[in-house]
Sequence to fold (825 residues):
Amino acid sequence: VLKSFRFLEPLASLNALSGFPDSKAFDDKLRKHAEDLALQVKSEIRMSTKTSEGWQMLTQVATPVILLQLFGSDVPRAASFSNEVMGQVLDMAKNKFGIQGMQQLAVALREREPALGNEIVETSSAFVQITIAEFNQNTQRDISVVKKLYAARNGGADSASAVWNKYQEFDNEYKRLVNVCLERRSLGNGDPLAYLVQEAKKNAKIDKDSWSLGKQQQIPKVLGAVFAWWSINFFHEQQDSNNNTREHVDHSYLLRPNNAQVVCILKLLGCSTNTVNLHNHLAEVPTGEGKSVIIGVLATTLGLYGFSVDCVCYSSMLSHRDQQNFLSMFTSFGLAEEIRYGTFDTLFENLIWEQYGDYRDSVKQYISTGTCSMTKGAGSSRPRVLIIDEVDVFCSKTFFGGAYSPAIMIHDKKIADLMRYVWSMRTVKNLDMNSFKEHPSYSAVLSSGILKASNEWLLESAIQKMHTAKGGSNKPYILRDGGLLYKQEGRDEYCNVTFRYLTNADYLVEFDRGNLTEQQLSARLVLHIEGGSFSYAKFPTMFKHILGVTGTLADDKLPPQMKNILTQMVGVKDFTYCPSMYHEQKRDFEPTNPNYVRLAKDEDEYYNLIVDEIENRLSPTTNIEGERSVLVFFREADEISKFRDSSYFAKFKEKAQVLNELTASKSADRGNIIKKATVHGMVTLATRMFGRGTDFKIFDDRMKKAGGMHVLQTFFSSDLSEEVQIQGRCARQGNKGSYSQVLLSTSVAKDFDVSVSTIESWSSAEVYTHLARLRQEKGSEEVRQLREQATGRLVEHDALATSLQSFQRGDSSPFDQLLQRLNKI
Fold:
């Protein structure tokens, strides 16, 4: 049955067959097969009995559970059906077996099929207490050990820090509160979560009045209450899902903070000295080790102390995920309106609204009538704190050297008709504006009231810009639900952005291809107004404090010139380097070993070396049967396509998969590809953006024993932090893994402005060393340019801010001049 579904699934996925009745019939069969497997599982669960030795017949339960997981894994179209019924049967199992029985079932699943069994255990909410207990055991370290590790990573400076006394205060309070809530002796019928909120607020109130004096003595207790809420809330969620857990209060099954994380938060809160001093502070946290927990709890604690907190990340997907994970905490503490998550763009959008109200609507109103009321939005009166996730991204040209330019668009059927008329004239080399104005579509817009008569210049400029945009944007995009989503540099996803009249042209191209309806096209053709740019480099002045966590902060991960930007332009005063919560890192990479960094003279050798490296790295590093998995990073998606379709890769093509912004544009597809990337024998070709923030989790213990996943990079990063992030996709959380590079000499020569002959004169053992030196030299120049770019953006920002402030005082002339300067041809 499974083989037939594997054969039919790709056919049913074709767009050409999507509307056929058989496609729905195929989905019905997939759903029916998943339900039949679920019935088998339920039958085995009912027949299971308990003796003094534990639950019996769990092996019989495990077999159809494995088949159900295999069905969803091997037939992607069936995944939603499989996941739905899997949740139902495992909840049924948990209700009957309880924690101890589920632990037995986890053993049976892993013995029956190690990879799939472990995947089920690691990803199902029914087994969450089992995985939490295993996590607690794997990351448990005495605080004395953590103290030594912190001292080693921070030059010995932490050994005498006051933070250790404060950690002990935290630990005592956390344990006290958890015990009170679990035993409930002093709570009676009271709500434990409400009690913890009350305790946190009570202690924060004691400190609030003296915050500016650095006399906050209650921070450890406030933090203890917040983390206790986190633990008890998890416990209650498990109670709600399974009544059998009410009798179990085993702390090994309790979600609890790691002591290295707690120390990191205390240090970010300024607790390294007896006098608390909150200031701009960044912490390096190893990749895959709970940055989201640190940010969520840190934001909650700051909120309790009267701050409004913005948590920013480069990825909207990751930002949304993290916010949802902690939303119940924020809500419980009454902070849902004071803690915001988003990207740099969405944050600036909120800040603009608070300062100038609905800026877009104000500009459109001014263009239409010549007047508008630009009033401030209802922002928080609290002092602001910014928490940045992955600071090196903020220091890039895309962000710190860039600006946020709100897309201001006027939608109207008459404007759409005018744009289509301009499009029909695209073969005309030079438009005669006087003749053009006689066309009915022009006079229709002008007489509609969309524009004030004195602003006719904007319509004339729009026509000329639309005419010159006839070639389109030439940027990668996807069409979804009648809208275009563009690939943006620095993002791992396609985004709803506009390139103004170039985007209009892209929509018209898609309409001409038959991919849009008349209605969809009419809704997307707009008149664009450039309303100025708000500089990201202005961020530091908008917040009282800036905090952050990142995987790349140490000198061997973040270039010194980037540190200069952080200290001089962002105003960061302190850097903390957190040790891993796991044991010694097991990543295998020897940069001076020719077997790890290989240089090709031409494309033929380049492709051959990549294929050889894939084949060699699939082989286990130990005497064990099976294969490892290999994750190959390319610079761009078109490079992947070219390599994948070449004859060189033919032997791997059938079992390989591609992870890029297109294949991962849907969350479900993204998750499925990432999950499969660590299956033994799998080869995944990925774009560079997935080298950051993507958790490739290994479920198969055989893969771990075989040497873990191998990461191969096919270009040399001009940014050291990018290379470190890509390396960090393997050997995560204490697992084994390896990393290597295969480089093309002509590509490297172009990237670093050196001759091919110079590169090829290097010995194999010197390639990485020479390239690292060139990267550092190039980085220094890029930072200089970044500073200049940021300075220019700040000038534009200040000009816009000045004109808007004048507007708010009743003088619109500076703003009118700015609009004409930005929009008039």
